[in-house]
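It is worth pausing here to work through a concrete case rather than discussing structure prediction in the abstract. The textbook approach is simple: state the sequence, then state the predicted structure, then interpret. We follow exactly that order.
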Amino acid sequence: MNKQQIISQINAIFEQSCRDVFTGLDCAFLDAKPPESDVVASTVEIDASSSDLYLDLQLQIPKAILQLSHPMRDSDIDMNDEVIQDWNLELANRILGKVKGRLATRAGQLKLGLPVQKQQTDDDHVNDNANSTTMFFEIEHEVFACQLRIEILNDKLELETTEEDALESEGELELF
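Step two, the predicted structure:
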């Protein structure tokens, strides 16, 4: 398996993890096109690494989406800035945690870092480069960005195929 195939497999895991997290929050989200201007939002970053692989997740999610996706949105909790910021950090942790869990059976254990709130600068916005995937989603007409940067540290890294991968590649349909 070459580097591009590994990156492609990790990107697919990342995309599914993002979808699973927001689906689990009962958020009606849509795929979105990249906006013409930068997403105006709070930026959170978290990383995961091993001796073979380094992953860096960056989320840019507007405050309105953080309020709509918060698990306590229907309660009497005060959605102040601290609660919203904590939720933003938690979302980053959940998404990269799902990626880490799905990669554990394929690439070994990754150590998950702590999410941090970042100050947005001109050269620190979500962007595309050779080893990153940026996905844009929309909730209630607000667009947000999820980006995963991938760095392969071991040229001999192999991602093992799981039973789930084998079933998907065979196109097998399970009926209950």
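Step three, interpretation. The longest helix spans residues 81-107. Helices lie at 3-24, 63-69, 81-107, 163-170.
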